[in-house]
Amino acid sequence: MQRKILLFAVPVGALVVGLLVGRMAFGGKTETHTEHDGATTAASPASAEQKAEVWTCSMHPQIRQPGPGKCPICAMDLIPVTSDSASGDAGPRAMTMSSSAVALADIQTTRVERRFPEATLHLVGQLDYDETKLRSLTARFPARIDELYVNYTGVSVARGEHLARIYSPELVTAQRELLSAQTAAPGGDFVRIAREKLRLWDVLPEQIDAVLARGTVTDSFELRAPAGGVVVMKNIKEGDYVKTGEPFFRIADLSELWLHLQAFESDIAQLRYGQEVTFTVESWPGETFSGHIAFIAPQVDSKTRTVAVRVNVPNPDQRLKPGMFARGQVRVKLAGGNQVFAPDLAGKWISPMHPEIVKDGPGACDICGMALVPVESLGYRTLTPEQAPLVVPASALLRTGKRAIVYVKLPDSKSATFEGREVELGAEAAGLVIIATGLNEGDEVVTQGAFKIDSSLQILAKPSMMNPTGGGPAPGHNHGGDNNKTPAMESMVKPADLVIASATARDLLPAYFALQTALAGDDLSAAQTALRAMMEVTGHVGELAELLHLTVGAETLDTIRRPAFARISSAMIVALKREVSALESPVVRMHCPMAGEGGADWLQATESLRNPYFGADMLTCGDVVERLK
After folding, report:
1. Residue 4 pLDDT > 90
2. Residue 381 half-sphere exposure, CB side, CA atoms within 13 Å?
3. How does residue 280 score in pLDDT terms, banded at 50, 70 and 90?
4. Which of 309, 117, 150 is nearest to 225 (CA)?
């Protein structure tokens, strides 16, 4: 019997495109069947690596190679463009992957939970006298200094200890008035008035009693200390004649000190009156001291962009000295909306002048007598664990400018399906980020491999971090425009906040200095090498890694300089200033007023100015702003 074969004319181009899209789509599933003894069985599925005909870079999808290897732009491992399963009903921002594809991409997830993340704020400052415990001893009457017992500053004196021997006609007259009153009417009103006059002249009660007991007037009178402490100012010498109101001494009580700290402007929202501050000083290595915040300045220093914070520090053994440099820490439990949660202070009442006075209920301050106030009136929140904010690891976020994307594993999918969600962020602390909106408790978010999922969506022209609307050519191609900037790069290098951990910033310094030198020397190849070195430090993970990946493929120096290098420099400066003491070598902050609107800063290892924003055109344009070390 003759068989008839029907041929359908199919455009070759359409067929090829269909095959390529089918093989490129993550989530595609291919099965082969063989017939044996009349039964149809599924062949063993080949690994993704065996079936992959095209390998690409998760950050530079324009790179296509026939096998595994390294990206020639950023040196990341290439990934296969194929997978084992497809989900036709996946949403426009969803990507379905088989178990083998998930394993190959090394995708890891964690659940969204409620927690009060604890931030640690680092502050530096200096110890000083407690101004409320400074006492000036001034002349209450004209006097001549016949003998000076305390004749240098820094000596410690106790209350009632003699300071000087003086002669004063007014004091002689006051003694006579006291004795006359006592003779006329012992213990009467005139005696009381005479005693009060001497007391107001800083004559101690025991000295007044001695005059009455002796019954005679003395020309030579001892000036005694009305309070104990350390003499921090001496304004007289033997033989001086002082007038009323002129200062003799200033005495400081060192049993309590003030610690003046400087807090970064970004930390203001997390600081509260009454918070405990722990600090260390170089004089006592290995020991930690503590105090409580008693004052937060109402204004920001326009030059340093810091806020003054004062801490009351008990110093009973007087081991701490005014002038000592201190490094402080404040541990803060964060709630949503920049709120602070202090479980130890929940429901307590605190003194508005002395934060160390905390009671269970209303009352008066034991020190100043002021009425206590509830801690909630000072900015604290009383919350239950169920009211804790939603948090995710910082590694789960893909950030570009002010947008942040998180990939969530959908719970009811047969195959692993990940959906991109735009979230609104709160504060960040200890590697955790508060999520204001966009996620629910229990959602399973991708903490490793999100870049690869996002890049796969870009390849499929679906909405992604780099291309929120989807469609169009793969990111990374030159779309034209100024300075070879792609739309993805334009989005990434907007002047938004970029956060770098202090330890990471220190590790980045050698490569950062190499980048600054390359830009100042107009050396594109060296700049790209430095960018790759910085990427190795980041481990290709995080917001900085995103910016570096988008910048390393630039074909012009201007694309790297502004605003990418400016943004990296700003983040490096903030990070390094948090722990200046940990720097091992000199770091100098420079400023160029001509680089962009308002100018731009950068860091150098020396003060020999080399402008990275203009290179040879304006190599020495700028000024030394600050020496970090």
Report:
1. no
2. 18
3. very high
4. 150
Please report which helix (H) or strand (E) contains residue 264, including its range.
Answer: strand 256-264
**Lookup result for tokens 């070598």:** 585
The closest of 571, 551, 562 to 594, measured between CA atoms, is 562
266 shares its domain with 126: yes
Tokens, residue 578: 């948090």
Residue with structure tokens 């107001």? 200
Q: For residue 551, what are the contacts with CB-CB under 8 A and spacing of at least 6?
A: 489, 493, 531, 559, 560, 564
Cα torsion through 394, 399, 404, 407, rounded to 10: -70
DSSP 3-state helix, strand, coil percentages of the chain (rounded to 5)?
30, 30, 45
pLDDT (mean) for 527-542:
87
Q: Could you tell me whether strands 416-422 and 403-409 are parallel, antiparallel, or unpaired per DSSP bridges?
A: antiparallel
Report the number of distinct structural domains present in the chain: 3
Q: What is the pLDDT of residue 497?
A: 60
Supply the range of the domain harboring residue 238: 131-252
Cα 427 from Cα 432, distance rounded (Å) = 9
What's the whole-number mean pLDDT along residues 269-275?
91
> Which pLDDT score is estimated for 228?
87
| 497 and 575 assigned to the same domain | yes
Q: How far is CA 172 from CA 175, 176, 178, 192, 197, in A?
A: 5, 6, 10, 17, 13
DSSP string computed for 510-543: HHHHHHHHHHHTT-HHHHHHHHHHHHHHHTT-SH
Say whether both 580 and 543 belong to one domain. Answer: yes
Which residues lie below 8 Å from residue 143, measured CB to CB, with a gap of 6+? 166, 167, 168, 171, 241, 242
Provide the phi-psi class of 225: left if phi over 0, else alpha when psi is between -120 and 50, else beta: beta
Is the per-residue pLDDT at 142 higher than 50? Answer: yes
Same domain, 506 and 623: yes
CB of 435 within 8 A of CB of 443?
Answer: no
CA distance 77 to 414: 29
368, 386, 404 - which closes a domain: 386
d(CA 542, CA 533): 15
Q: What is the pTM of this model?
A: 0.60
Report how far residue 462's alpha carbon sits from residue 167's, in angstroms, rounded to the nearest whole number.
95
Indicate the average pLDDT of the chain.
81
- Domain assignment of residue 98, yes or no: no
Q: Which residues of 354-386 are buried (b: 16+ CB within 10 A; e: fewer)?
A: bbbbbeeeeeebeeeeeebeebeebebbebeee
Last residue of a domain, one of 252, 282, 301: 252
Comparing 319-333, 377-391, 466-480, the range with the smallest average pLDDT is 466-480
Least confident of 50-64, 174-188, 189-203, 583-597: 50-64
CA gap 441, 114 in Å, rounded:
7
Q: Residue 587: pLDDT band by 50, 70, 90 thresholds? A: very high
- Residue labelled with tokens 């820490």: 329
Q: 42: part of which helix (H) or strand (E)? A: strand 39-42
Is residue 344 within 8 A of residue 277, CB to CB? The reply is no
Say what percent of the chain tops pLDDT 70: 83
Same domain flag for 155 and 168: yes
pLDDT at 5: 31
Residue 11 has pLDDT above 50, yes or no: no
Residue in the block written with tokens 């003694």: 175
